[in-house]
Amino acid sequence: MSLSASPVGALGGQQRILNFAIKDKNALYASFMPFIRNGGLFIPTTKHYQLGDEIFLLLQLMEETDRIPVAGKVIWITPPGAEGNRAVGVGVQFSDQDKGVARRKIEEYLAGALNAERSTHTM
């Protein structure tokens, strides 16, 4: 699987900037959370986050050089030792500020695969 997440720093309070790159379609499918309002992504990370923490993602999809800036908040946490050997990380819900840009871009890459019955990092 081809994913990488790296923190950039804090903007003060609980808002954080996170670089997140997804390099292949299978990794994108496993990370995408289409069942969340506005969409979202599961981000494998061992950094400690709390539910409600605000995240600013700099999202790089596939081989694109431009990053998509996405504001969001932590709505899902998979802790170490979770049932079913699930990846440790957080689910980030995209905010209304994004106006659906990130979700549409992800859905374009996943066209035809969104109704698959494969497991993901969350459901």
Question: Could you name the key traits of this structure?
Answer:
123 residues; mainly beta; Thrombin, subunit H; six-stranded mixed beta sheet; 2 helices; 6 strands; 13% helix; globular
How many beta strands in the DSSP annotation? 6
* General shape: globular
Broad structural category: mainly beta
Q: How far from one another are the termini? A: 18 Å
Helices, by number, come to 2
Largest sheet: 6 strands, mixed
Sheet with most strands: strand arrangement: 1-2-4-5-6-3
- Summed up, the domain count is 1
CATH second-level architecture: Beta Barrel
Q: How are helices and strands ordered from N to C?
A: EEHEEEEH
Strand percentage: 35-45%
CATH homology superfamily name: predicted glycosyltransferase like domains
What name does CATH use for the topology?
Answer: Thrombin, subunit H
What is the CATH domain class?
Mainly Beta
Indicate the mean pLDDT.
Answer: 82
User: Helical amount among residues, as a percent range?
Assistant: 10-25%
Q: Uncertain spans, ≥5 residues at pLDDT below 50?
A: 7-13
What is the CA-atom radius of gyration, in angstroms? 13 Å
